[in-house]
Amino acid sequence: MLTLLKKIFIWWNQETLGTKLKTIFYGKLAGKDSSGNKYYESKSGKRWVIYNDEIDASKIPNEWFSWMHFTNNRIENNHELKKYDWQKPHQSNQTGTENAYHPNKNNDPIKKKYTIWKS
After folding, report:
1. pLDDT given for residue 119 in this prediction
2. How far apart are CA 35 and CA 13, in angstroms?
3. What is residue 88's predicted lDDT score, i.e. its pLDDT?
4. SS3 sequence, 22-73?
């Protein structure tokens, strides 16, 4: 019962009941990415994603981003591409987390390129 209430009222964590019903009745699974996100398409051409964990649009990898936005490119139909050694795995936006980039993360004092004139 609690799970059903969560599906109805807590829309920001997972798919809602309406999205679940739309996916069951109208959605055709187009594929799944390495993060576990599932991509669906309706007969009318609408596309949507069901996120594996927390809903965050920056979790969509590059090859599926082009599919979601109807961008034609050479990798449109081939989502299982060969990854090279130099390619990093996709990460969602890290802003506001502990993994965010900070230029002075070591708390080193800023080294100035000049000296202050003291009178």
Report:
1. 61
2. 16
3. 79
4. HHHHHCEEEEECCCCCEEEECCCCCEEEECCCCCCHHHCCHHHHHHHCCCCC
Contact 2/10 with Cβ under 8 angstroms?
no
Q: Which residue has the tokens 């202050």?
A: 116
Residue pair 92/58 in contact (Cβ under 8 Å)? The answer is yes
- Single pTM value for the model: 0.61
Write the DSSP symbol of residue 107: -
Give the pair of three-digit tokens for residue 102.
């900070």
Contact 27, 40 (CB under 8 A): yes
Which residues fall within 8 angstroms of residue 101, CB to CB, at 6 or more apart?
A: 94
Q: Does 89 or 32 have the greater pLDDT score?
A: 32
